[in-house]
């Protein structure tokens, strides 16, 4: 019998060795009233044996990560689930994640829970990673996610609203940032909770990982992520006649101007040095370290 809650994950080549921890944390949930959807993005088919009770979808075309998350969202909506819980299969969770998530989604449109950073061998690197960045637990305004992201797909869940249709552009890289920005633009209300924890694993395949100083490669990645994000949100606002279109278009132009300035070798080196020297003051969430030309002025001497 179908439950009203769907937890979804994506498996891919290289993630196999982490699946037992993921499955153990699901099997040990105090609230077991959920369905599990696994999307297989070209991992070995034998892995399917581990997921005997899961709804299984094989991706037969090369889809972008954004398109795969769209597939998950559409499946949850079409099958009339009330709650969609996102998960990363290389992470694992507290035994009460489903229970606490459901409790919060009775009152809020989305929920984001605390992270403990662990290494490849499950050794704790940092506990309560997000608490410092959530001065208030309520997430109600677009300002909160304007310059950075704090709500990841490994530690968040949404109440499915038939009035809001989320369409994720296939080129979006920070899918989580896009989804929660769209929800806030639609006046949805979120909450941060430290009552349950996602154990967020750091290893070489992580797209972003935890805060670390920038280099040439991560700077370029950050510029691409922010540019695509602001462009995608601007387009969404335009389509839906939202007044925030001007705000996000301004953010897009600022990143474009930054990209141009950073083409000059000397300035790019200076920019990286300023960010890294002041990193502890600047970092307040993913992509927060990519400062605009205006924002970086306060750190220039």
Q: Which series of helices and strands comes N to C? A: EHEEHEEHEEEEHEHHHH
User: Alpha-carbon distance between the termini?
Assistant: 64 Å
Q: Count up the helices.
A: 8
Low-confidence stretches: none
- Hey, roughly how much beta strand do the residues contain? 15-25%
Q: Mind explaining what this structure looks like?
A:
The chain is of the alpha/beta class and 301 residues long. It is 34% helix and 18% strand. The chain has eight helices and ten strands. The chain starts with a strand and ends in a 19-residue tail after the last helix. The model has no long low-confidence stretch (mean pLDDT 94).
Question: Which structural traits does this protein have?
Answer:
10 strands
Helix and strand arrangement:
Layout: E1 5-11, H1 19-27, E2 35-40, E3 55-58, H2 65-78, E4 83-86, E5 92-93, H3 97-105, E6 110-118, E7 124-126, E8 138-139, E9 156-159, H4 175-185, E10 190-201, H5 216-239, H6 245-261, H7 265-277, H8 279-282
Parallel strand pairs: 1-2, 1-4, 2-3, 6-10
Antiparallel strand pairs: 4-9, 5-10, 6-7, 6-9, 8-10
Give a nutshell description of this structure.
It contains 8 helices and 10 strands.
């Amino acid at each position: 019998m179908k439950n009203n809650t769907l937890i979804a994950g994506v498996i891919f080549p290289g993630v196999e060795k982490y699946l037992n921890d993921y499955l153990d944390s699901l099997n040990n949930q105090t609230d077991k009233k959920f369905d599990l959807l696994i999307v297989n993005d070209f991992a070995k088919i034998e892995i399917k044996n581990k997921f005997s009770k899961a709804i299984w979808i094989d991706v037969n075309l090369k889809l972008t990560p954004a398109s795969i998350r769209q597939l998950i969202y559409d499946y949850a909506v079409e099958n009339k689930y009330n709650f969609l819980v996102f998960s990363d299969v290389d992470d694992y969770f507290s035994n009460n994640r489903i229970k606490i998530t459901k409790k919060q989604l009775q009152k809020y449109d989305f929920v984001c829970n605390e992270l403990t950073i662990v290494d490849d061998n499950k050794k704790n690197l940092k506990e309560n990673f997000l608490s410092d960045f959530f001065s208030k637990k309520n997430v109600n305004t677009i300002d909160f996610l304007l310059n950075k992201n704090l709500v990841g797909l490994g530690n968040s869940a949404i109440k499915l609203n038939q009035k809001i249709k989320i369409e994720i552009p296939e080129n979006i890289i920070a899918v989580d940032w896009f989804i929660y920005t769209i929800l806030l633009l639609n006046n949805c209300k979120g909450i941060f909770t430290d009552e349950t924890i996602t154990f967020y694993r750091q290893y070489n395949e992580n797209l972003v990982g935890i805060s670390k100083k920038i280099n040439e490669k991560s700077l370029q990645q950050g510029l691409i992520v922010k540019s695509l994000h602001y462009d995608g949100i601007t387009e969404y606002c335009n389509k839906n006649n939202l007044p925030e279109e001007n705000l996000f278009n301004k953010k897009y132009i600022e990143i474009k101007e930054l990209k141009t300035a950073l083409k000059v070798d000397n300035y790019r080196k200076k920019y990286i040095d300023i960010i890294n020297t002041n990193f502890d003051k600047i970092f307040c969430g993913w992509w927060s370290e990519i400062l605009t030309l205006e924002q970086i002025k306060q750190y220039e001497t």
